[in-house]
Write a structure and sequence with these properties.
Elements: H1 2-15, H2 20-54, E1 101-102, E2 107-111, H3 117-124, E3 130-132, H4 147-154, E4 157-158, E5 163-167, H5 177-184, E6 189-194, H6 197-211, H7 218-222, E7 223-225, E8 230-231, H8 236-239, H9 243-251, E9 259-263, H10 264-269, H11 271-281, E10 293-296, E11 301-304, H12 329-350
Parallel strand pairs: 2-5, 2-6, 3-5, 6-9
Antiparallel strand pairs: 1-4, 7-8, 10-11
InterPro entries: NST/OST (IPR037359), P-loop_NTPase (IPR027417), Sulfotransferase_dom (IPR000863)
Keywords: Disulfide bond, Glycoprotein, Golgi apparatus, Membrane, Signal-anchor, Transferase, Transmembrane, Transmembrane helix
Subcellular location: Endomembrane system; Golgi apparatus membrane
Length: 357
């Protein structure tokens, strides 16, 4: 019996070298080491992340050139709403936020139709500090009842320091537009592209007849009575060219210093020169220069040289630089005689002589 108990004791000793309390201590020790290593790894990751974050640029150091902009992308967005993501740009380590938001425009191209407004807008969109709506919203002349919140929602997102703008040439000749724009902002900057009113009228008619080829001839529409030579100044292509009549309304609401006139003829012959003046007017650095343009002899119109990210130069659509319909020289001379006193009044009103014949 004693031998049996001795063998049982030896069997227990072989299979239970350590009591249960020793196993628990060993397990606890391993868990403690694992926890310590986890905390150490987490701390190292946190410190490394903090170092990297501290190297992020402050808002004031971020150049607009480093961000995707409507003006710098190519081809241009049709409505200027897809650049600088919909959610904007989040904050940095200093706790600041630099977010792109929709704002009411600070500058407007208000006219004139067939003066070169589309060309001017496309040229200006090259500037990284300009965010321009591509389409014409017609807010102040057609959709005013929708309210400023709707108008703001149409604008592209922009960062602080960028200028938001749009163009609607009909504003210049719409009676209610000046007070409505003034109610939005008395500090807004206004841009008007003007050209020889006779050439502008023929260009206007050329566009009309391209869409409605069955309309009467230019000559029959331009005169109330062809035999007496009485001009029908109420006909839209001629009425728009009465610049002094329209400008008078704008000067009743805005000082001359807030209205910049672009010479439509020089916008074609010297686009960089006219763009330089517009950039000065908007308080921007002259970034759009003659290096951006070349003259397309076929279209008779300036085009943009190959932009960054594109393999081809960019010219405006086929409707730009379109050949005008042929008009009887006698009709053209009668129109020049008609416009002469109106042009002289306009020159005196704005303090600028455009030297139209």
């Amino acid at each position: 019996m004693a031998a049996f108990h001795h063998r049982q004791h030896q069997h227990w000793s072989r299979h239970h070298l350590h009591p249960p309390s020793a196993d628990l201590r060993r397990l606890f020790h391993r868990l403690t080491i694992a926890s310590s290593l986890s905390i150490l790894c987490f701390s190292l990751v946190y410190l490394l992340a903090g170092c990297c974050e501290s190297e992020l640029p402050d808002k004031s150091d971020v150049s607009a050139r480093d961000l995707p902009l409507a003006g710098s992308g190519w081809p241009y967005e049709r409505n200027g709403t897809h650049a600088v993501g919909e959610t904007g740009l989040e904050g940095n380590s200093s706790g600041k936020e630099w977010t792109a938001t929709r704002r009411l425009p600070q500058a407007l191209i208000i006219g004139v139709k067939k003066g070169g407004t589309r060309a001017l807008l496309e040229f200006l969109r090259l500037h990284p500090d300009i965010r321009a709506l591509g389409s014409e919203p017609h807010f102040f002349d057609r959709h005013y009842a929708r309210g400023l919140d709707w108008y703001r929602s149409m604008m592209p997102k922009a960062l602080d320091g960028q200028i938001v703008m749009e163009k609607t040439p009909r504003y210049f000749v719409t009676v209610d537009t000046p007070p409505r724009i003034h109610a939005m902002s008395r500090d807004v900057k206004l841009i008007v592209v003007v050209r020889d009113p006779v050439t502008r009228a023929i260009s206007d008619y050329t566009q009309i007849i391209s869409k409605t080829p069955d309309i009467p001839s230019f000559e029959s529409l331009a005169f109330k009575n062809r035999s007496t030579g009485q001009i029908d100044s109420s006909w839209s292509p001629l009425w728009i060219g009465l610049y002094a009549q329209h400008m008078e309304r704008w000067l009743a609401w805005f000082p001359r210093t807030q209205i910049h006139l672009v010479n439509g003829e020089r916008l074609i012959s010297d686009p960089a020169g006219e763009l330089g003046k517009v950039q000065d007017f908007l308080g921007l650095q002259r970034i759009v220069t003659d290096k951006h343009f070349y003259f397309n002899k076929t279209k008779g119109f300036p085009c943009l040289k190959k932009p960054e990210g594109s393999s081809k130069p960019h010219c405006l659509g086929k409707t730009k630089g379109r050949t005008h319909v042929s008009i009887n020289p006698d009709v053209i001379q009668k129109l020049r005689d008609f416009y002469k006193p109106h042009n002289q009044r306009f020159y005196h009103m704005v303090g600028q002589n455009f030297e139209w014949q």
